Each structure stands twice: as structure tokens, then as C-alpha cells.
Amino acid sequence: MKKTVLPIITSETQLPFYVYSVGGMENQHPVRRLRGYPHYVWLHTIQGTGKLLLDGAEHTLTENSGLLLYPQSSYAYSALEEPWETHWVAFSGDAVESFLQYTELKKSQLFSQLNLQMLDRLINEIYVSALSNHPESGIISSGKLYSFLIELSRSVNQEHFRSNNSTYSRLQPVLSHIENNLAHDISLDHLAAIIHVSPQYLCRLFKQSLQMSPVVYLIRLRLQKAKELLLEQDELSVAEIGAKVGFQAASYFCSVFKHHEGMTPLEFRKSFK
What is the mean pLDDT of the chain? Predict the structure, then answer.
């Protein structure tokens, strides 16, 4: 995700949530919006460091930080350490403010201890959806944006909790192993052994920290990587992409993909042509 996508917006403005833009930048350009911006923005750092001026106060944006910006806020940001890579989504809708207020996200603010892996994955899903020429891509993007906002509110509500316990940090070696070994067989026993716990206890840690089982997390990660490869590497067959993300049988890959995405991998690829 290295570019900005601006979906064609028509009747989407009538939706309670809609995506104005979504994307990523390998070296974030300086942004200066001292008179505000018409849309809400979420932005987080992938690598490098940025500096933020928000309503007169200065902040540092690190790899562990994310930023929520309300339309009326005065802000500017630029790189402190280059390359400063960022991913973001800008959004609007009649229900956005009431949702954010209800979930205690009541103002522009900086967060430093969020589950950025999951949030970034959801932004990638919005990005992939926004690229599509499917006639219902606006509605699909709206649904994925809603999922993102739910995850954001859940992550924020757990921020204080996580700062007082080691559950999430304890899972980091497991999450890194999964991320780096998608093409290989990954057993629950092996994942548990990485942090010297039983498989049953590992499942409890996942449920407590990520609200899902290790198996569900692994499938979601594999499917997200598969979607990226389907769009970015036309020279690879569906079977080759399935193997690259850990599905050795092409038929099983297609079955799992269709169950979760509502279409086969080939149909998904063709929908972007």
C-alpha cells in the first residue's frame, strides 16, 4: 500500500460511514491544516518518526503511535526521521461523530499503545476494497470502515488495560513468527512453545488480547496477504499465491477465500481489472 486511493463518491455520502481517501506513503509529505480539514483522519506510523503540532501542542509520532484527527482541529505534521512511512484513512458520514463520542473518542488525540497490527490490516482491507471497480465497492468500503472504527474503539478501551499487564507484549514473539512464516505449516503446539505455554493457554491469551483464536488470526493474515499478492503480482497463479501464504492445496485456498470474501481468488483479481 504505497499510494492514495480516492474513491468516486456519489450516493455514498448518504451512508452513515464512508471513505473519502485511504492509502500509504513511504515517505510522508508534510501536511499543514491549521484551519482544519473537512474529514476525520486516522494515521499511524509504519516506520520512522514524525512530529505533530496539534491545537498548539507538539508531539512525536513513533512506530507505536496512531493519531485520530477531528475535522475542526488545527494540525500539521512532517517527518523527524526519514523515511517516515504512514498509512491512513480519511472518512466522513452522519454517524461518525456520534459513534466516536459514544466510544469515548471525543476529540483529536494521539495514542501510543494500540494494536496497530490489527488496525493496519483493516486499513489494508479498506484500501483493497476502495481499489475495486465493483458497483457496490462504496458500500463494501463503508462496512469495512465501520469494522475499523469498532476495532479502534476496542483497542483504545484496552490501552490502559494493556499498559498494566503483559498479555499483549507476551504475544509479540508469536505474532512476529506468524507474520514471518505464512508460507509454512504453523501448528498451535509450535506457537505455544515459542512463549513456553500450553496450546490451551495460548488460546486464552489470544482471546484476551485480540478477541480471536490463533487459528482465526492466522487465516485472516493469510487471506490479507493473498489479496495483496493477487493485486500486485499478476504473474503468479492462484495456486502459487495460495502456496506463498500457507495453503498448499489450491482447492482449499479457493474454498477458504470464497467463504470469507464471497468470491473466488480469480474473481477477486478480475474485479480489479
Answer: 88
Half-sphere exposure of 135 (CA within 13 A, CB side): 0
- Element (DSSP H or E) covering residue 91: strand 75-92
Terminal Cα distance for the chain, rounded: 17
Look at residues 43, 124, 114, 119 and name the one whose alpha carbon lies nearest to residue 76: 43
CA distance 106 to 119: 19
**Res. 271: pLDDT tops 90:** no
Which has the minimum average pLDDT: 7-16, 74-83, 244-253? 7-16
* Alpha helices for the chain (secondary structure H): 96-102, 116-131, 137-163, 167-180, 188-194, 199-210, 214-232, 238-244, 250-261, 265-270
Q: Would you state the torsion angle of the CA atoms of residues 118, 123, 127, 130, taken in this order, to the nearest 10 degrees?
A: 120
pLDDT at 211 over 80: no
How far apart CA 50 and CA 85 sit, in angstroms, is 9
Pick from 61, 123, 125, 140: nearest CA to 89: 123
CB atoms within 10 A of CB 24: 20
Write the CB contacts of 155 (distance below 8 Å, at least 6 apart in sequence).
111, 114, 115, 118, 119
Distance CA 116, CA 44 (A): 8
Q: What DSSP element (H or E) covers 60?
A: strand 57-61
CA distance 129 to 137: 6
Grid coordinates belonging to 78: 512532517
Q: Which tens digits make up the pLDDT trace of 79-138?
A: 998 889 999 999 999 999 999 998 879 899 998 867 788 899 999 999 988 887 677 778
Compute φ and ψ for 142, nearest 5 degrees.
Answer: -60, -45
